[in-house]
Recover the amino acids of this structure.
């Protein structure tokens, strides 16, 4: 549904009843990357999945974005749905959003699950995101979709599930170029949190072939959070929620049901 929050027209979907789970996608994604997880989790929980500003069917609202702005958008959505606290599940850039949300609003967070978790983009990566932002603004999403698809998926996925490769490419191409470029800049500017301040349970899920947020980054996060678990999914790249949905679902439910 499209709904006007305090500052933004947001596209989101709500399913199920019970404790709330909020799904936050990453750069280039949409709420549909969570389709399998929502279908499973909504049997036991109230699930809320939404499109970030500039992504999917949510308003673009240019000129500039920031992780702080994404956090406030999330806060407005929770208020819209009268959700006082929830479990938060993020992918890629979405993991930075929920990490910063947990620092700013710890009383609203029951747990975090970070799929392809990110700490802070290193200097070379920041430069790459700035260059990508300019390229997309000049030439559109077609200029970057193939390279992102190639680098983001595992060798196994590209061999065994070529249809999914095409769908990820289409997902990327469907992005609003200005919104995507602004999101790139927001991600490049994002800073790491102090992970020791997050005392809630944290699940880290990473593909063994993830080049964007590799296993070593997940291990660094695991050491940083006081109360964390780590799951490494075999034959999986950065788009774990759609490359290996059953493995991700199993990890999430095992984590949530033990809280």
């Amino acid at each position: 549904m499209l709904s006007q929050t305090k500052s933004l027209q947001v596209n989101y979907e709500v399913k199920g009843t019970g404790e709330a789970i909020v799904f936050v996608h990453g750069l280039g994604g949409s709420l549909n990357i969570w389709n399998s997880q929502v279908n499973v989790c909504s049997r036991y929980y109230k699930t809320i999945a939404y499109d970030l500003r500039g992504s999917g069917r949510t308003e673009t609202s240019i000129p500039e974005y920031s992780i702080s702005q994404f956090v406030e958008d999330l806060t407005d959505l929770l208020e819209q749905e009268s959700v006082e606290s929830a479990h938060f599940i993020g992918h890629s850039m979405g993991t930075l959003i929920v990490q910063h949300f947990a620092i700013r609003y710890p009383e609203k967070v029951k747990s975090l699950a970070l799929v392809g978790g990110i700490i802070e983009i290193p200097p070379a990566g920041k430069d790459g995101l700035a260059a990508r932002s300019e390229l997309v603004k000049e030439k559109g999403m077609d200029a970057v979709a193939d390279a992102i698809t190639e680098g983001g998926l595992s060798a196994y996925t590209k061999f065994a599930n070529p249809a999914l490769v095409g769908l990820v490419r289409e997902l990327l191409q469907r992005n609003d170029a200005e919104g995507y470029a602004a999101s790139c800049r927001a991600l490049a500017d994002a800073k790491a949190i102090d992970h020791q301040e997050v005392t809630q349970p944290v699940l880290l899920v990473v593909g063994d072939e993830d080049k964007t947020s590799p296993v070593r980054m997940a291990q660094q996060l695991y050491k940083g959070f006081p109360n964390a678990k780590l799951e490494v999914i075999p034959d999986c790249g950065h788009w774990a929620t759609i490359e290996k949905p059953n493995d991700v679902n199993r990890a999430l439910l095992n984590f949530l049901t033990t809280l």
Notes: The first strand starts at residue 2 and ends at 4. The chain has one domain: 2-120+192-256.
